Amino acid sequence: xxxxxxxxxxxxxxxxxxxxxxxxxxxxxxxxxxxxxxxxxxxxxxxxxxxxxxxxxxxxxxxxxxxxxxxxxxxxxxxxxxxxxxxxxxxxxxxxxxxxxxxxxxxxxxxxxxxxxxxxxxxxxxxxxxxxxxxxxxxxxxxxxxxxxxxxxxxxxxxxxxxxxxxxxxxxxxxxxxxxxxxxxxxxxxxxxxxxxxxxxxxxxxxxxxxxxxxxxxxxxxxxxxxxxxxxxxxxxxxxxxxxxxxxxxxxxxxxxxxxxxxxxxxxxxxxxxxxxxxxxxxxxxxxxxxxxxxxxxxxxxxx
Length: 304
Prior knowledge:
Layout: H1 2-19, H2 28-45, H3 49-64, H4 73-81, H5 87-90, H6 93-105, H7 109-121, H8 128-139, H9 146-154, H10 164-170, H11 176-182, H12 187-190, H13 193-208, H14 215-226, H15 232-243, H16 253-267, H17 285-299
Helix pairs in contact: 3-4, 4-6, 4-7, 6-8, 7-8, 13-14, 13-15, 14-16, 15-16
């Protein structure tokens, strides 16, 4: 601590000599808090896949044994963030219920803010887990950080539909990334399942008028293409939205080409590559229909 204080004093003195004016006081507590926050983010980002999976499975086992209270908040956070992708939670409604129950039972502001961040990552509209977290956040809004409360107010987060309507209506298709940043959705949230829901809705809206003007669709697909492909099994929602409606009647050649190029870049050629399955698709009927549309387009030279 002495070394830190001494270094800070020498730095202040040197900068004052250069600028000719006294620098504003910096709170060491705020510096420590910010440094700790960035360290937690770095640690989460650098967790190897095998280690992450082991920790999540250990968390699920403790929850199963009724020992959720033994879980450190870091493991609880990890499990919440990956609840929609790890088999141990995907396959068990009870495991997801116990995970959320443990998370909302933790006292203090920190667990509530962890839940707020996790909400975007494990978002699934209408699911019991999403709605339980949503209602818990509504009851504890005063415990959220200042920037989170500002976001909640700006997008009318608790006025219905999780704030999605306000956000989607505010998106400027000329610069969707900046539009979302202005309402408080950073890169992590834009690449989350909450962000995926926003992108899918925007794609559906533009398809309604795509024959009149294909440019908005091109802009949105270009924006999505720039994002990191983290979950192709969840992003299969894109090909369902883009192809299923054209099972009986093809769009214009320009629209067909735009969609085909995007899907080839995202999932590969379905004639030689296996595309991920669709969720809630019993018998793979929707998937087979979508693949038939895509293969028909490619066979007819849609990219020419």
